[in-house]
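As the next step, I selected for study a record pairing a protein sequence with its backbone structure tokens, which the following lines show:
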Amino acid sequence: MVQEHAVLEELRQLAPEYFRTLKHSPEKGDYVVTLHRNGYQHLLETISDLLKLCMVATEEGLEISTDISRLNISVHNTLGLVLRLLPVHESEFMDMLRDHLLEE
């Protein structure tokens, strides 16, 4: 039992270092993901990329117009955004947690 308390305390101390992707918002009781953009233009480009991909994904036989030009850049930017949203640090912590919980 004493060892379990020590492990639990260790995990509590490590948690803030690893739980970085979602930030708790006590006022609303939910979590926030921070998305850093260089300004409004960068934000609008990100939104535009997401919209272009949705348009292409939902339209059969869509003719690529100037509104959906440079689609490869939109795909690249969107995939980069998704990569930044992956909870990588949290997964490291979950592996540590699993190892502690499944110790024999």
Observations:
- The mean pLDDT is 84.
- The two ends are 14 Å apart (CA to CA).
- The beta strands are 22-25, 30-33.
- The chain has four helices and two strands.
